[in-house]
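Subject: sequence -> structure tokens, single chain

Hey, anyone have a minute? Need the predicted structure for the following. Not urgent.
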Amino acid sequence: MKSGWLDIELRSELTTGTGDTLNGLVDIDIAHVHGLPVIPAKRLKGALLEVGKEMVDWGLLKARDLYAVFGKAGLDVSSPLQIHDAHLYQIPDGSSTQVVEHVPELLRQLRESEWQGQEVLEAFTDLHTRTAIDEQDGSAKEGNLRTVRAVNKGIVLRSYVELDEEVNSEVLENTLQMCVKGLRHLGLASTRGSGEVRCKLTKFSYPKEELVQSGTAVMKELGDGRVELPFHLELEQPLVIAGRKGLADRSEEWIPGSTLLGVFAELYIREYQCGQQAHEDERFSRIFLRGGVSFGYALPLVGSRVFAPSAAMWQQQKNANDGFDLMRGSEPKTDTVLRNLDGMVHMALPTSHTEQAKPTLYKYKVRKQVRMHHARASNRAIGRALGEKQPADAQKQGVPLQQDSANRGQLFQYEAIEAGQRFYGVLQGRREDVQLLVDLAAKYRNRLRMGRSRTAEYGNVHFVPRHDFCPVLLSGEPAREPSAFVALSFVTPMLLLDESGRPDPAPRWLQKQITDKLGCDVEVKAAQLRYTTLSGYNAKWRLPKPQNAALDAGTTLIVKLTPPIAAEKLESMFWGWDTGEGNGQVRAIPLAEEQLQQAQSFTLSAVKLEESQPVEEASAHPLLIWLAKRRQDKLWILEQQAAGVECAERTVSNFADAFKSVGLTKIQQMRLWAKTTNDNQSSYETLQKQVEEIEQSQTNQACMKLIQPCENKSSVFIQSYLRALELKARGRK
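Reply:
Had a minute. Here:
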């Protein structure tokens, strides 16, 4: 893997529209992350591809080389090029330049500080107004005034670019370099002077840490030669995980095991060059096709708490912040109205054992973001997406009709899991198989690509094998002592099959499987069932997988085990079928028989990231210091301007005769004199020198009285003071 930097210098203001607005203030806003302007990676890749297509038409590039770099729709292999969002790199600051480094750390500090996104954004952008002209009379069209935000010119943004090592890597690099040199405009209104850029691509090189030594990961022995390894996933970019109903549905709250299985299968095929015959490799078939390794779902991790779908037996009182644990007894006897708990939760048991002590159920909402994108029409002369139908204005302008809807381009949006969040999961399997997966990830520097749009803007994830085990759903270690009554809460969906191998989401098939594996009788005392449909997509055959009915995460079964079984043993394996994709993970909660007689109450609390994940104190980022100084300078300017206006009010009152004798033109002239200041002189000295040269003594004396309050004052004060006098003179006339 080679990498380089793409520097983008703004020669004019730049508007990377996102479709967002600021009601009543900004009609077209720009892409930014907590106030820091960015150029989305998909925009960059699309703009570079458009330049490449033009060069192909001119005969400067070969089409096969261009598509070898950027990929082509319909292929089952992604392009070797990956582009990241372009972030701030250099900011002009008078005669010097402010260099922005360590952007992830900067974003972390911004999120945890008092800085508001709009205040940060104002430091790097300006607002511009535009309107449309009526072709009939040449006047501005009614209702067409638009306020547009744009990034200031002179700013340099930088994007991290990666290129997979190929046999013809030199050809790929040269092709990309030509596209970069040809990129001259970005964003909106490029035909009206906006978005002029100059781009420079540094030479590709290998990263300093090309190989991450994994060593021998610390694994937990499960018996029968099986081990368990926990891991963390840290999102470096937004992650698009398609919902169960496809991309049109909301993004998932977790990272499914099938996604992880596919990522590691791709690494295996690439490393051992299996190609289309990977299924004939015995080790590949055992690990990925026959469930030799169970890839657990990656669940949200906040501090040391792992959040999972709420157990169906945990319910909340309507219009209140109290909840009840129904798995420990019947519903409350009062007229309490209960409703289901949705989302990701974690139960923290009380530290004290007094009667007043209650468990706390923390709720966590995975941070998500929605980004809008567009694909241009195949006819590049159109320059935009036409959508499903030919717009009326396009017909009026004579734009040729695109018969195929796929050639008209489209507007679409992705809902993605926001970058910077962490997820926790486990791998279960034979030690040598799990170690093989750890070594595969280490060869690629523990950086995985997963989800949708992995070549631009989305999908980079840092894989971290760990040795610390975090409690899922409920605080506390799994019980090692045998228990006769156990509450089984499904952490992930569970696929159950009947005797004929057909999907049947009935608990009796789980009872049978537990009996066969652990040799105990299982009796279901209570059940709260949730249902779902498991499906997916087979990348090899490029066909959807069958849709199978299954029990959903959150399903709760209270079972009696004869003889008693330790809860730890139930949690040490995945139940049901398709366990290789992470299905069938459970949390076993031992219950005493007396606990089943009465419902237990708990309190609800929304967890915040900074409360559960304290961050070590770090020195303030240089850009935050720069922003704080800029804020102080801005406040000082406002104070000086206010003082100048207030002083002008007093001057008009105290020197009314002098003010009346000086005309509007002379005051405007004094403002001009105050602006033309030499480096060795103050504004007041320059102004005084010019006033002394006025030949008419009466005017000279009047002007000297008016500028007397400006002595030893700043140029900002003087300009504000003279401007206020000018407005007073205009009002008098």
